[in-house]
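pasting for the record
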Amino acid sequence: MGVNERTKNVGCHCLARSRLPLMRSPQLQAHIYILAAVATVLSAVCVRAQNVQPAGATNHIVVIRQVHFNPPQMTVKAGETVEWKNEDIFSHTVTADDGSFDSGLIDPDNSWQRTFQQAGTVGYHCRPHPNMRAALVVQGTNGTGAAANAASRGGTLKWSPPTKAQELHPILVNFTAALLPLAFLSDVLGRIFRRQSFHHTAWWMVLYAAVITPFTAAAGWWWRLTEGSTLPAKLITVHEWLGTTAVLLFVVLAIWRWSIHKRDTSPNWAYLTFALIVVLALVYQGSLGGRMVFGK
């Protein structure tokens, strides 16, 4: 072994022996443990600080989906913010029943939020879809609120007289939608069983439908004038003109059916075919109305 290599080995050996006491020093090991503990505590504090949200953060979310507010009732504290997210395919509004707030149209994939300062219970609905109703209970700083009144707003089953076009129109539509198909069925059964009583029943149902339908169309146009900007443009255009056409068809159908009833004869196939076309138009008309109101 050369002189240089011996010198190198001796130097390494001496350096290793000089480090050994330092590594085995109890005082140094204690310092290392203390530093590690402090680092662990600081890391935990930092993570906790990142997870803490400010007091005014928005924690309450109402999701609008499939023409429903979810949840239908929510309780928050005064000063908190509620956000409504529209995950539906139609635009909706968040409109207070007492008129205290109105979001305007919330387009799909958009949201609207509001901070509530006053304690109490407020029911709200969607203007284009009045069947969509919910309630918000705002509690005061002492934890009290008007939760007991929540059932009387938003989700109530209590009857109240219809006063708006969007309330009157569906009621009148139900009469027409029931009377005309039943009249058509009565005439078909009358021909099958050769019973004039079926035909007499059909005549009166056609007459009632013809009388009600103009009021139905008028309520529809009223709805169109007051809430037209909040309804799907293409659907409402087809719906309104098809409804107006239905009024004329019903008048023609009633006059034709009256002439048959006057002769006390059974309706011929030409009349039944025309009545079937009107029934199918009524079904299509109803499907458009259902898509506007229920979003299907």
